[in-house]
Structure formats: structure tokens, C-alpha cells
């Protein structure tokens, strides 16, 4: 894997505490809405899809913005590279994006590499791709993959931010291994839900830290692993993959870094957190812990106010 050569520690912009907090008046309404002919339900003002046993996170305009922001942030982080595995691009023929979501990564790879066949797999239906070399399959990726070409094998399997979307990781990795060409690569990026500071700037009784610790209770209640990142390397090796490498990158929560690139990453990551937090908490906290919608929103507001105070130099790790 290419050495990302990123910062081990992130220098702090000394003027960060003086930044004025600005938020756009409303999220963009330009994101597409999935077709109503498929099964969705609305709970507490958010829309969820019902493929198989559904997903605990919403799938609606807000979640789509969240996915757009994540995609832009990771492209910036990786210097506009769609993957960092050491693959000879001229020898790249077939790629699969597992948990493709809106298909942003799949469409982007298909556009950049028109000689490559790209397949996106998800439980969300897609309209036909604008790229002739990109297609989407509606299915649970832990089941046997039913491909248009049953003989297709992949040179690269890409997985990103799928942590709660999979119940059986062993089954998923088994499919990845079975459908991969000899010498192919699997590349996965997942967030460690553990907010930290390196300079002691964490506020006393931090709401953000509390919510990060609360995910252990959420995992126990739902059977969905919020901390899958801690076991990724071992699980991938157990599936039969070799030469498995792991790199960690700190993502600043807010534009507190003095480095211009990481300042922009911090802006993206703040937006990602703010557009994501309610959806990550809402269904699970109400169904399993007896919270009300007001309780969820209050928890979010408290965390957002903490970020807006511009007093902490907090980060999470990818």
C-alpha cells in the first residue's frame, strides 16, 4: 500500500479560537431522492429503507449530503486518488464497490478509468449509471454475489464507511476473497469512533467523548458493530488475504489545524459529523434506550455547541 505520508500530529492554528462559527442556512436540496416504488418508511421525520431487515441509519436527503461530504473529504485526504493500493492502473480491469451508497466512488472510478468495469453493490436501488462501464447490483453483499457475468473476478474490492451496515463480516470478506483475481487487493476505510485531543484541550464532561463511548452500548443493544475498525486487519487476514497493511490518519473535527489541507479536511469532517449525528443516534436510541426525539436532538445540539465553541482540538481516526 502506498505510504500516505500524512501528519502524525496536526499542528494547531493559534487563531482557531477566534474563528466565527458560520453555518449554511440549510442543506442543499439538490441531492436525488430514491424512487418511491421501493419500500421505505418514515420514523421521527427521517426516511429508512426496508431491504431485508433494513438499516438503523436513515436514507434521505440529509444522509445523502453526509455521504457527499465524506466522499469529498476522503478525495482531499488522498490527494484526489480513488485508491491507495499499489495497483498497476493499466492492468486494472474489474473493480467492485461494496456498500456503494449513492455510487459516488464507483461513478468516479468509472469516469477516470474508462477501460475498467466497475460494479457497485448495495441494498439501495440505483438508476442506470451515466458511465457505460459502471453498473449497480441490488443485493446484500454478505450473500452470494449474483453478477451479470458470473465469471467476473475483481482486481480491487473497495469498502468505505460500512461499519454498521454489515452484520456478518466473515461472510462479506469470504465473498470478497472468492470473487477476487489472484494478486488483487481489498481496500477498506472505516472510522474509529474515539474522539481525542493531543494537547489537553478536551472540555470537561465532553458530550462528543460521551457519545463516542456510548456506541459500546449501541453495539450491545443492536448486534451491529460500531467499532469494526479495531478488528479490520485480523478479520481480513482470517478470510485468507495476505500482506494486509493498516494505516491510521487523524481527522480534525473542525478547522483547527494550521496546515491548509487539514484545515479543509476539518471543515469537511465537521460537516460530516453534523449531518450524520442525528441519524446515527435516532432509531437506535429511541427503539432500544427509550429516548425521545427531543432527547436525541438535545444530545446533538450539545455536541454541536461544543464544536462551535472552537475551544477543542479534537480528532477522530480513519
TrEMBL record:
Gene3D superfamilies per UniProt: Vaccinia Virus protein VP39
GO molecular function: methyltransferase activity
Superkingdom of origin: Eukaryota
Transmembrane segments annotated in the record for this chain: none
SUPFAM superfamilies with a match to the protein in the record: S-adenosyl-L-methionine-dependent methyltransferases
InterPro entries: SAM-dependent_MTases_sf
PANTHER family recorded: 2-METHOXY-6-POLYPRENYL-1,4-BENZOQUINOL METHYLASE, MITOCHONDRIAL (PTHR43591:SF24), METHYLTRANSFERASE (PTHR43591)
Name of the protein in its database record: Methyltransferase
Amino acid at each position: 500500500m502506498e505510504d500516505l505520508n500524512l501528519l502524525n500530529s496536526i499542528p494547531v492554528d493559534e487563531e482557531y479560537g477566534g474563528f466565527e462559527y458560520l453555518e449554511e442556512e440549510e442543506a442543499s436540496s439538490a441531492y436525488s431522492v430514491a424512487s418511491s416504488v421501493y419500500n421505505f418508511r418514515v420514523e421521527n421525520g427521517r426516511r429508512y429503507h426496508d431491504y431485508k431487515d433494513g438499516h438503523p441509519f436513515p436514507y434521505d436527503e440529509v444522509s445523502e449530503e453526509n455521504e457527499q461530504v465524506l466522499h469529498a473529504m476522503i478525495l482531499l485526504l488522498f490527494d484526489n486518488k480513488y485508491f491507495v493500493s499499489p495497483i498497476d492502473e493499466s492492468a486494472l480491469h474489474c473493480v467492485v464497490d461494496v456498500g456503494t451508497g449513492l455510487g459516488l466512488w464507483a461513478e468516479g472510478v468509472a469516469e477516470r478509468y474508462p477501460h475498467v468495469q466497475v460494479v457497485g453493490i448495495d441494498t439501495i436501488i440505483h438508476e442506470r449509471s451515466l458511465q457505460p462501464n459502471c453498473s449497480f447490483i441490488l443485493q446484500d453483499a454478505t450473500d452470494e454475489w449474483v453478477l451479470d457475468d458470473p465469471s467476473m473476478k475483481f482486481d480491487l474490492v473497495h469498502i468505505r464507511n460500512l461499519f454498521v451496515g454489515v452484520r456478518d463480516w466473515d461472510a462479506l470478506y469470504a465473498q470478497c476473497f472468492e470473487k477476487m483475481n489472484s494478486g488483487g487487493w481489498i481496500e477498506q476505510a472505516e472510522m474509529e469512533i474515539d474522539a481525542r485531543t493531543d494537547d489537553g484541550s478536551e472540555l470537561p464532561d465532553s458530550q462528543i467523548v460521551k457519545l463516542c463511548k456510548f456506541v459500546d452500548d449501541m453495539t450491545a443493544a443492536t448486534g451491529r458493530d460500531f467499532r469494526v475498525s479495531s478488528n479490520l486487519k485480523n478479520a481480513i487476514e482470517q478470510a485468507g488475504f495476505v500482506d494486509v497493511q493498516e494505516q491510521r490518519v487523524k481527522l480534525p473535527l473542525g478547522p483547527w489545524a494550521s496546515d491548509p489541507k487539514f484545515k479543509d479536511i476539518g471543515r469537511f469532517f465537521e460537516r460530516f459529523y453534523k449531518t450524520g449525528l442525528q441519524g446515527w443516534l435516532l432509531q437506535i436510541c429511541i427503539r432500544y434506550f427509550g429516548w425521545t426525539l427531543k432527547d436525541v436532538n438535545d444530545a446533538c445540539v450539545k455536541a454541536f455547541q461544543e464544536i462551535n465553541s472552537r475551544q477543542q482540538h479534537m480528532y477522530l481516526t480513519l
